[in-house]
Amino acid sequence: MYREQLPCVNYALLTLRIFFSDKTFMLQESLPINSSELVTNLEPVIAVSNLNHYFGEGGLRKQVLFYINLEIKAGEIVIMTGPSGSGKTTFLTLLGGLRSAQEGSLKILGQEICGASKRELTVLRRQIGYIFQAHNLMTFLTAKENVRMSLELHDEYLNQDIDGKAITMLETVGLADRVNYYPEKLSGGQKQRVAIARALVSHPKIVLADEPTAALDKKSGRDVVELMQKLAKEQGCTILLVTHDNRILDIADRIIYMEDGLLKSDGVDVTTSMH
C-alpha cells in the first residue's frame, strides 16, 4: 500500500557500515529515497569546523592553520587561493587524508577523520582523486598503466575490464593516440591529462587538485581545467582546486581565500587580493 501511494519514489537498499573494534557490521534496511533529493538533502561532502593544525613538538610547535570553518556541497567546484606559505597545501593534505587532522572537526563524506586511524584514512583516500602540480606519474609505466593503477586500488573493478576502462578514460581526455606512451614521451599538458584521467577513472566523490596548471602554458593550463570541470560535472563529483592562476578563476562556483593559516573570505571575488 505504501509503495502504491508513492509511485515516484525509488526504493534503494542502504548499507550502513558501522566500524567498531576493527570489525565491520552490516546493517541493511530497505528505505524509500527520492532520487531528486539525494544531493540536496545530504550533508556537505566536506564539513570543517574550528580546525587547527600544528607542526613540530614542544617548544618548536608552530600553529599553521587557525580555526578553519568551511562547507562544500556535492558537485561544487571550489577554488582556494592565497599567498605562498599560507597553509593551502597543508589544508588540502588534511582533506585528502594524507595526514591526520589534530584539532577541531573534519568530516569527509560524513565521516569524522579528526583523529582517524591509518586504516580509516586509507579507506577514505580510495574515495578521493588527487591531481598534483608535478603530475606524479610513474615514469616506468605507460599512460594506460598509470590510469589502470588507480582502478587496481578498488576491489569492485578487479573483475572488470580495467584496461578497457583506462583506455576509454584516456580517449575522453584526448589521448587516444598516446595510450602506450611513457611519460618521458609526453608534453607537460599531456602528462597532466593523464593525471586527470587517473584521478577520475574510478569516479571519486571528491577531487583535490594542487596547482594543476603551475607548470603549463596559458593554453594548456586552460585546457586542463576546462577538462576537469567538464568531467567533474558529468560525474557529479566535487572539486577543490588550489591555484595562484588568475586565468582559471572563472570555472569556480565559489572562491575561497586563505592567508597566514586563516580562511579570510569564502564565496567572494578575490582576484584583486591575489599576489
Task: Tell me the layout of helices and strands.
Blueprint: H1 2-5, E1 10-20, E2 23-33, H2 38-41, E3 46-55, E4 62-72, E5 77-81, H3 88-95, E6 103-108, E7 111-112, H4 118-125, E8 128-131, H5 143-151, H6 162-172, H7 188-200, E9 206-210, H8 218-235, E10 238-242, E11 254-259, E12 262-266
Parallel strand pairs: 5-10, 5-11, 8-9, 9-10
Antiparallel strand pairs: 1-2, 3-4, 3-6, 6-7, 11-12
Helix pairs in contact: 5-6, 5-7, 6-7, 7-8
What can you see in these coordinates?
There is one protein chain. The protein has helices at residues 2-5, 38-41, 88-95, 118-125, 143-151, 162-172, 188-200, 218-235, and strands spanning 10-20, 23-33, 46-55, 62-72, 77-81, 103-108, 111-112, 128-131, 206-210, 238-242, 254-259, 262-266. The chain has 275 residues and is an alpha/beta fold. Helix 5 (143-151) crosses helix 6. A hairpin with a 2-residue loop joins strand 1 and strand 2. The strands form three sheets. Strands 8-9-10-5-11-12 form a six-stranded mixed β-sheet. The chain has a four-stranded antiparallel β-sheet with strand order 4-3-6-7, covered by helices on one side. It has a two-stranded antiparallel ribbon with strand order 1-2.
